[in-house]
Write a structure and sequence with these properties.
The chain is an alpha+beta fold. It has helices at about 25-40, 60-80, 150-165, 190-195, 230-255, 260, 265-290, 340-345, 365-370, 395-410; strands at about 10, 15-20, 80-85, 90-100, 100-110, 115-120, 135, 140-145, 170, 180, 215, 220-225, 290-295, 300-310, 310-320, 325, 380, 385-390.
Amino acid sequence: MSGKVVFDNPSPDVLEKKSGGGCLRLFGLPFFLAGLFVLQIPLGLIPLENQDAIKGWMTVFIPLFSLPFIAVGGGLLFGGKTLTMDKTRNSLTQAWKLLSFPVRAKEFPLDGFSAIAVRKDVGDSDSPTTYPVSLANQDRVPILTLVNPVKYEDSRRVSEQVAKFLNLPVEDSVSGETVVREPERLDESIAGRARRTGEKVGLPPAPPVMRSKVEQLGRQLVIDIPGRGIGAASLIGAAVPLVIAAFIISSVLDMRGPFIDQYRFYIIIIGLIALHAILIGLLPALRRRSNVTRVTASPEELRVEFRAGRKVKTQVIPSAELEELHLPKVKHPFGPQMKNLADAGQAAGYTGAPRMPDGRPAPKWLVLLGSLARSPGITAQSDKAMVQFGAGLPEDELAYLCALIKKAMVE
């Protein structure tokens, strides 16, 4: 869903959104006509060469087969849905109509909602990634989806409109970490927030070893972030076919006699296949290693340039529009409760090697998996754009860079 998704505001106390009609009617028309066409076959209204063969159970089955087409096509062609929020009645009403006749309606009390939830639903090969906007109940559980756009900008615009109308906070978890924005501060930039609160940005200690290069040029802060390079996943992906090919080759070489001379060609082919598999596994990682991200922060704007070879993709967020700059927490492969075993153990009074919260030593494989978890990077958001950068850098380095960028933009 893209395009116009903003609610209409027919009166100060009413917010309304209508769906149905337009392109949906054109989409439903062929289904509806196909269902009508099939329905007429057993009635003899459409002449067929083998009309006499249609008898008995087929006269019942064919009309039943046509009903789904008529229902789906008719719903798209003649149906519509209206969602209305009325503060004078303290109600949200979902109503479905067929032509002008009401078919079904559901009603919710507006005071039963506590927040506007925005999340990211990652799609697959058959469906796109979407950014649903939902109303959450008093337990902060989303219970009613308002819109489901494919553009984050549309989702953010709708969430702000509804939040201002209902005077509810927006809980945005698109970046991987929930960011709460109060309804009266939805359009406030981080620079404006710092001026209002008198905030002074504190810098954490700089890491002793940094992968990034930081340079201060007057009022501009320039950060060059190298590519992620070759990780454990890339090495494992390249090692598996190599091990298999090496096993086959070693098994063949163990054989003696004319077999080697007879099948030498096949041995060479197997070796080339193994080499090809290694390149397929390593080339993407080598390509990522050559990528460079340049971040330029100043009181005027945040500019992020993603450089991949000769290609440069630039995203710019003016300082007056930058509303969030934060660092999502690293997610452990087995859930947030296992993210930092050392902290969990120390909180329970245990020191030394990483331990489970109950005091048992953490399994080595679990500690290893935790060390492989990497941060998604720093997230910058405005009403018009969202950009993430620095994925894969150590957490202490990202925290230092995030503070540097914020300081350069607000002070």
